Amino acid sequence: MTSFRCFLVLSLVSFLLLSTVLPSISTNDEQDDEDLRLLEETEGKSVDIASLPHLSDSDDDQFPEDDEEDEDSGSEQETDDPLSDPYKAPQIDEKDVVVLTQGNFSDFIKNNKFGMVEFYAPWCGHCQSLAPEYAAAATEMKGEGVVLAKVDATQEDELAEEYDVEGLPTIYFLVDGKHTLYPAARNKDAIVTWIKKQIGPGIYNVTTLDDAERILTSESEVALGYLNSLVGPESDELAATSKLLDDIKFYQTMNPDVAKLFYIDPEVKRPALVLLKKDAEKICHFDGLFVKTAISEFVTSNKLPLVTIFSRESAPSIFESSIKMHLLLFATLNISEKYIPVLQEAAAKLFKGKLISIYVQVDNEESGKPVANFFGVSGNGPTIRAYSGDDAKKFAMNGDVTFNNIKAFAEDFLAGRLKPFYKSDPIPETNNEDVKEVVGDNFDEIVLDESKDVLLEIYAPWCGHCRSLEPTYNKLAQHLRGINSLVIAKMDGTTNEHPKAKSAGFPTMLFFPAGKKSSDPMKVNTGRTVVDFYKFLKEHATIPFKLKKAVLVPKDKPTKTSDSKVRENSSSVSSKEEL
């Protein structure tokens, strides 16, 4: 009996010792978990601001290695939801457009040597604009042995995946089942002209004056070769050039009278070539070696007007040109007549073939206003900007819009002597919020500070995803406000730019580690909760930090501080909101 009592006493003592020791061990081992639970479990509770997590430097963490990018870039491009507002298609005569599905696609390819296929979505605005043009082209090409068809990519997802459809509309031209991407303008005339060049010789003979007069009356841009023979090497070079240039019709003749009507001296040494345009510069004579590369370069350099009026129709000719240096004049319509001639004389004529001169009407809401916003141009103008298509850099001209200033600016632009221009909002007078406001002009000071680890959100004011992220992002910044080496920041990507802040969509999340600002920033590939962001920062921050446990103050048990004071200095923190 005595031994049994001793056993009970020893067991009781052991139990009491273990119950005292184990909680402390568990508490120490799970300290980090408690910190994260703090971020997750503050929903519905009032938190004394003075007791929010304080962060301090820690030597416990090692410097992390960068992870490889995973598939989710963390950047989303906002799009309209087609299901929320079903599109009602207008009445378009599409009797000659074949509707394709997975079931009949193979038969279509088997039965048609030549075909064109458009992948579309019923709700897509660009597809809606293309529909009447595509239908008209289908009707015209019906007699040429070319069938135009369409595939609803929202229904035929397997076909869309097979043909690598990434944007809408996507148009392919098929020859014996082999497909190539259609590269030209999305209107009936461009489609018909391009197809005819693919299936035909690419050039057309002009043998009579009646034919010549009809061409000059109906065509806005034509190239005519005055040749020794309509077959042979000269004709072959012209035909090969025609295949390269989709938007220009090429003709050939041996008739001296036809040549004269096209402003070619009948006695000139053949082969000769002329490009005619309905523009201030109506006639351009070719004086180079009569080979494909030289002819193509000549036509490309001269086919655009001296000053191109920017519009939806002219945009493809500008951006698809081999000339990537652009000089732009921004002005309202009522003052454009005064400044377009200055641009024409100071740049368009002097640097033809080296740059494209463009006029942008800033009071045109459809085409001019978006371009002006992209270049950071406000007001009525006149304003001069330059753009390099090879590296997407923009340049601003200072001073009045005069002949001498434009000429000097163009020379410096072509010589690479200009400093790039980046858009910026005014620097905020105060920047004391938890989330710091970054603009183009204070980007270096805040984001590229080598002593700070910086998390940057690039957002757009109209972006729904960005608005959804804002409460979570604010709460993250609130929790991290006590650490001097961490900055949580945001920048309006529609009105501010910086070479280190490139975004393909909104929001874009970038991380700039301390001491590594000369390298490209890291893409934040993580979820969109407070905890997810915290874990990312914990892993990738150059300067280690640690989240300490906070003291939570339940709403029904206020401290000695008055209720109003608690409400004033507290916030409800919830990190469970996701995009």
Automatic annotation (TrEMBL):
Residues 58-83 have a biased composition (Acidic residues). One of its GO terms (cellular component) is endoplasmic reticulum lumen. Residues 1-23 form the signal peptide. The keyword Disulfide bond applies. Keywords: Disulfide bond, Endoplasmic reticulum, Glycoprotein, Isomerase, Redox-active center, Repeat, Signal. CDD domains: PDI_a_family (cd02961), PDI_a_PDI_a'_C (cd02995), PDI_b'_family (cd02982), PDI_b_family (cd02981). It is an enzyme of class 5 (isomerase). Residues 569-579 have a biased composition (Low complexity). Its EC number is 5.3.4.1. PROSITE patterns: THIOREDOXIN_1, THIOREDOXIN_2. Residues 556-568 have a biased composition (Basic and acidic residues). It comes from the Eukaryota. It is found in: Endoplasmic reticulum lumen. The keyword Manganese does not apply. GO terms for biological process: protein folding; response to endoplasmic reticulum stress. It catalyses: Catalyzes the rearrangement of -S-S- bonds in proteins. Residues 40-89, 556-579 are annotated as: Disordered. SUPFAM superfamilies: Thioredoxin-like (SSF52833). Acts as a protein-folding catalyst that interacts with nascent polypeptides to catalyze the formation, isomerization, and reduction or oxidation of disulfide bonds. Belongs to the protein disulfide isomerase family. This is Protein disulfide isomerase-like 1-4. It comes from Gossypium darwinii.
